[in-house]
Records
---
Amino acid sequence: MLFVLTVLFAVALAAPLLFRRVGRSAFYILAAFPAAAFVWLMATFPRYTGADQTLASGAPNAPPSVTIAWIPDLRVELAFRLDTLSAVLSILILGVGALVLFYCARYFRPNDPKMGSFGAQLLAFAAAMFGLVTADDLILLFIFWELTTILSYLLIGYSAHRLSARRAALQALIVTTFGGLAMLVGMIVLGTVAGTYRISEIMAMAPELAASGTLVNVAIALLLVGAVSKSALFPFHFWLPAAMAAPTPVSAYLHAAAMVKAGIYLIARLAPGFSETLLWHPIVLVLGLATMLLGGWRALRQFDVKLILAYGTVSQLGFLTLVVGLGSREAAVAGLGLLLAHGFFKATLFLVVGIIDHQAGTRDIRKLSGIYRTAPKLAVVAVIGAASMAGVPPLLGYVAKESVYETFVHYGEQQGSFAAWLLLAGVVTGSILTFAYSARFVWGAFAVKEGCTATPFKSVSWSFLAAPAVLAAATVVFGLWPSPLDSVIASYADLFPAEGKPTHLALWHGLTPALGLTVLTLGIGAVLFLMRRRVESFQSSVASPIDAERTYRGSIGVLDDVAVWVTGRTQRGSLTFYLFVILSMAIVTPLTALILRSAPMPQDFRWFDNPLQAVIGAGVVLGAVAAARATKRFLAVLMVSVSGYGIALIFALQGAPDLALTQMLVETIVLVAFVLALRSLPARLWKREPKRHRTLRALLGIAFGASMVVFAMTAMASRVAAPVSLDFPPLAYEGGGGSNIVNVTLVDIRAWDTFGEITVLAIAATGLASLIFVRGRVDKRRRAEGVATGSVDRGREQFAPTGRRQATLALARKFSSVGRDAWLVAGRTLAPERRSIIFEVITRLLFHSVMLFSVYLLIAGHNAPGGGFAGGLMAGLALTIRYLAGGRFELAEASPVSAGTLLGGGLGVIALSAAAPLFFGGQILQSAILKFTWPVFGEVKFVTSTIFDIGVYLVVVGLVLDVLRTLGSEIDERSEGDADDEDGTDNDSIVEEPQIPDIATSPAPGSRPEEEEVAR
Amino acid sequence: MTVNLTLLLVMGCLYAAGIYLLLERSLTRVVLGLTMLTNATNILLLATGGPAGLAPIFNKDLAADAYNDPLPQAFILTSIVISFSVTAFMLGIIYRSWILSRQDEVQDDIEDRRVASQSSFDAEDDADVPEDTTEFTPPEEAEEAPGSQRGNTANEPEATR
């Protein structure tokens, strides 16, 4: 059965390709697969019905089963089991499925573009449905259940250009998913109580479970909610008539034969064990009967033949629920008989409606007239189907209904209660209505009506009519010869305790009360049909007290209103508002907890560790306050830096040289980055200072700061255990092979953390690059060779207002010596007035030493202050100096490897060093200490985590380089462009080539001698 | 453990100033506020490490608690570098916002305001559905404006969905 399931799903996946190649006839190919599966099912049928239905899967005479472990921790498995009930449902799923697919080949237009996905969905639906009835695990059943819901959504929404189809699809989805979720809760409760999700095991222990009390009662009720919503029972029935917006083959298959039967299937599955639980009968019997009467009554006033059938289906589903859910052996026989009968006749009738709609272009009974004359064969098929629905002998519908009557007569006799007899009366009334709407259907679709011209009707080809004809034939055959069905159903019915002599499906039971009821049904039904005008006018004069669909739309409307209201109150669009809320909560919630739990407060205080700390602390606070009060952009930045440097000193005093070093370096580079990024922005922070809520902001800030002090104190006072880090020194030295405990912590003890952090750095750097470059990282290196001397950033000063500045400029240009490039590689590219000989000389002297020092920090960092972070930042600082002294081409010359390569390379080195130990039988990120002797160096101790640190170094250098390239070089280049746009005359002194990515194609230097002239 | 008041007070002041700046509309001040919050948090971590001690460079003659606690130090080191990268990224945002809209201020989201003031009527969900009694009308005829009785919303073309 797993093979069948897999093949059906696989073919469904491939179906769209098939349709593209073969066109409409691909439906025939698709139909062949469920048909083949049907043949297989029939050939192996005795294996399912002959097995002992109660045995655990795997026992010698148990029904065939397959079990594959799936999520053992949750006890969920892919368990399948094909017993009688599954096999009976599979007859409908595979048999009707094959016929409907066959029928589709004539139903759709030959070149319908959406046919491919439709065919795929329909076949996938058949597969999901087959999975649903064979699943032996509650969770697996749920998955198939929801698969059918989703496919039903897609299939109903086939005509997506129609509002009715979209609305109906969504409505069916919401209603059945709601029920499905309730069912899932019920399944989990049931599975938890039972200790297994295996359905067959749960059914085996059903008596104990059913007796165990409330939890199981609630679980079963929730499962029934799922079944009731899926099978369109009151109060969820409204989705089914609306779903008639689906193409008619879908209605025939999903909404008559298969999907709506899923709920019935679930009830039938649970009935042998749980029909005696507290809430079962109230739900099943009341809702079933109400739905049966409501559906039948509504069907009598429809004018669309498809809607007559739809309400008829609602009615029949109520009927089926009632019978299948009654929970006796007799009812089981009758119920399963009715299930099959309904599948056959309702699918027949829907397919007939599809043909009528296809040929006549309407389904309105006020427009259809005289079709029995033009299409007699179709009419015969329809009459057989409708008669079976109405319960006319000798058809299968009659056989089933007869045994239902008998069941309820016996039930009434046994129970003797008023309610039991009321049930019988209700069933008879429902059947009378069924007869009446069946007659209305046949009359409406085929009869000649007064004042109506005969409907033009194209002749029906045999291949179009074949599918309903086969189903009608089945109705006749099994009506006349019900014993094969009877013997099949008996093996399911035996799950119920036998009471008295076993009942059978048969055409003739003798002169029983049931027969009398049948005669009554036919008689009154006929009268009701003849009085149809009066019934219609009576129905239209009585407004129905409850309209479930209106209730549904009303509740959805209320939901919408609430959603808009809540969204409007919470999502105000103001970041400040959100922050106010979040921060207030961050203050209030922990404070409340502290007060309620009377948290400990520290007893020992000291003012400072040494007096210098207090002095520096005061400096930090002053910097922070000044930054908060500053109105100039750069002043604020500078003040933040002051407090940042102060913190570096605090680190140093506290005994954290690594931190002090890193903080210093970062503070410096951040300061440069701030200046570079903000230089295009106006100097003042505001056009006018925003005064609104200033006090509130200050109060919130102070409150937050104060609360943090309290929290910190509480946290410190609450410490009871010795710090975990007391183990770090020996761990670092012996395990990590390094003396610098902080560094070993980063690259070894907590290396995963660092791995994550490094990834964040690479992402942030890439994000920055994409924010500034917009169209790619532009990692291509731009050499200084093609750039004219003195051309970079030569700008607006030429037009400086005062003559004195202009004179200074002219002087600077005159004396600037561009012939000598002794100090920096690309220093000459800068405009003369931008250059500083002292800076260039210092850069020249410092750069290599700083670079070398950074490598030293990296290597020595394992044992002394330093490490990959500090080293990388130091190297970044060296690059920063080069950029500041020599401009963007100097930076490009100084970084032969692009930022992207550094970031990627760094990550690669780290990943490799993390994974490499695996190849030596170690664990990820494990480090090893290698000792060897080198000729000059003597004995060398090398710890492999240094390689990790090298990766860190590379990523940090890449990050700093990206900052310089974006906030520095790129903004330089753009703002120079701006200057050109503003003055517009000085273009010829600026070489445009650097802006073209491919430098190689640009003219060689010196090809424009006049520019050199101007530069000089 | 004993509590160092200087560190906590510095931390509290940095938090207060940081939050004050964060609640501002100017993006530059928001970024500065975030930087200060980072600094404050680093001080908090440092304070949990206990009193000042020796630099955590291993010396086998020393007891483990003679050093300043290395674990908070490792956290702070990570934090410093991460906040550097985040600050750089935020600077990129400031620059871009300035280039695109000459704005250095956090704007209110107008779309959110629009959502708050809209009616909950949605033509797709709430318009009346016309009855069809056949599936075989050509699509162009079946094309329908939802809620044709409901005034203006009816004029929204279906194609925009």
---
Amino acid sequence: MSIRDKLLDFKRRLSDRKMYSIVITLIAAVALWGVYQYKRAANLRQELDNQYNRAFYEMVGYVNNVETLLAKSMISTTTQKTAITLQEAWRQATMAQTNLGQLPVSQPVLASTSKFLTQVGDLSLTLDNQNIKGTKLSDNQYKTVEKLYNYSAALNKSLRDLQSDLGTGRLRWGELASKGTKLFSKTSSKNMMKKIETLNTTFQDYPTLIYDGPFSDHMTTAEARGLTGDTLNSEQAKEKVKKFLGEGNVAEIKDVGKNDSGPIKTFSYNVKLKNAPEDQDVNIGVSQKGGHVVWMLRNRTVGEKKLDIDQAKKAGRDFLAEKGYESMEDTYYMTQDNVATINYAYSQKGVTIYPDLIKVKVALDNGEIVGIEAKTYLSNHTVREIPVPKITQAEAKKKINENLELHGSGLAFIPTDYKKELFCYEFKGKLNNNDFIVYINALTGEEEDILMIVNTPNGVLTM
Amino acid sequence: MKKNRPDTGSKSRTGRIATIMVAALILCGFMLIITDLVFKPGSVFAQNSNISDVQLLARAINGEARGEPYEGQVAVGAVILNRTKHPDFPKTIAGVIYQPGAFTAVDDGQINVPIDSGSTVVRAAQDALNGWDPTYGCIYYYNPATATSSWIWSRQVVVKIGKHNFAR
């Protein structure tokens, strides 16, 4: 039978009553399934809406508390009470920000609000620490708290407006989140975005705060102390790259990018090596000033492990010395996939300078250096004036928990979250089978930091 | 039993169209059912509730930068970590990764694709956690071939790695 005859035959069979009923049943089944899917989507949408609403209402609650707590802290007179109030303000601001991050609104719209909450949190924590140590708020700090209080009151008001819109059902969070299911989108979602954007404009003119917390604005503009040398152009920088990797090894250097912002301006290159397959190339970034290597990564599959960790540490140290980084001591390391990542800190007159840190990746099959990360070193390195400790090591030891079994001590400079450095006694000890390092300030005797060392099968890490 | 039907002249065309429409409808119906069964939009893939930072970061990199050069994978990991330190974004790795709308690979479930053995994403995640940052502090990246938001194009591009432009 030809195709046409077959089609006619099929059509004839369709006209038969039995075929009709089968076809109709099939259509009904598909329709029922469609209704089921629609209802299921509606349920999921409702669940999602509930989550978003929960996050929003929690955030409103927390911001309300932040406003109240900031007001209280301006009024309380004793440092203890102020400390407690500010600590609670920090906690509430953190939780407000966490919930903010769960809302289905695009990042650029909520950036300023997030930034405000983070900075309120950090400022509160810093002032809290200060009050714990017994120092009251200075006039300047008081004014800053007042300014932040006013901003938080404005934020609160905007949020309340949004909240009433949500409550009357005029706007639905889920509509914003829907992608492609035009079924549920309504024009009101555009209005929703506009209102949230006005949330942001409350903060257009709020000041860059400078204080000691980690997100403090001035953190991002710190100078790089370790960058020595003249500013180079790209050709001169490429020469430095060739020297770093070995003149004879480089087959081709390709420009990949130029970074002109931040304290360390850089050139980025992709380097193909001689005698190596195409995909095992080197990616490297060097500073525009002086051509120092900021970071380097060599992607190659590493073979069987032939070196132990001590040989790897020596290989790293020799490499650094050869490249002009003298007097570097290893401090922590970890291994994975037969590559050891070792941290080296600069050592000056026996004092370990942790802020001057370089990380080196050593391949354990042949000792080759397959990675280097020197951003921290280049940011911080100088020859420091080592002060005379104001307390003796014995006095410092007395400040430590007497249950700690000590097995090592020394002097060190440690970095803090806010770029200040502290000169400390370093005590390594064991308690309850956990290794700890305690830092006692050598000038004030205060306990500055406690690190717990996590021993994992991959290496020795700090927590 | 075949009945002798008269040749349906004027009716044949509407009849044929009706037949084709019904057949097409049934076909679409079956395709929808099959795709629904295969892709299961409602089910949840995450197996382990105690996923460590390295694993979560590696899966995010796997979703976003699977075919990218190694440096590109480290760069994506670095962007995620830079966001945790940036006041505009959530403070935790999970918070940054799962922020609604932040990463397309998270929104469409690609983050749940299992990691190939021999893939470099776990190593890349480890390097990013250890401080390697080929982007020098960037907090945004986009694929210039597919990005449609005019806002992302306005960000200052710092470096281009593989298919992605990295921006602050």
